[in-house]
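User: Run a structure prediction on this.
Assistant: Running it now.
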Amino acid sequence: MSANRPFSKWALLALLFVSLVAVDQWTKYLAVERLTTLFERTGAQTLGERVAGFLDHEHLEAISTEPYYVWRPVWRMNYVENPGAAWGLFRGHSERFRNGFFTLVSLGAVAFILYYYRKLRPEQRYLQLALALVLSGAVGNFLDRLARGYVIDFVEWYWWNRPDIRWPTFNVADSLIVVGVAMLVLHPGAGKAAQASTPAEGDRRASSGG
């Protein structure tokens, strides 16, 4: 690649997308490996056998282990299967309704992100990164729902030594979405654009005698 040629925004998206979705799925595999007894029960020894078990077996909450405390006062890892959205939304609806609803939402979100991404200029790296995070998170969770009908969550943050007062259990894909959306909301370019337009408008008025 020429030193004067900028890194393609599509190459950046592809690199981030593949890497982040892989990380999301790998951490969910680790949640199954370390927070359930699936592999011990099935006798899976090799990596191939364990990956196959991760892909083939569903509904493992009944064989989950005790939570692993990363920092006991506020943070633990706990295997949870979430058939709904954040805070358990739509959990009470039928599986058919949930799968159809989340499929439509996920496909709509992907289409919107790609449509908006296509309009970005090559130098708009901040927005490219933000949209790549949201896209990767949305697809990561969509793959879970497509394969199992639920999303694997495992990170729990709670109030000081009070696991009953906690943030909803989440995963890497959720984090990517939250960070990406926060970057879009806090995008510094909007304020700079507004400031830049003010002198331009003043110059036009001056030149027209206004």
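The chain has seven helices and four strands.
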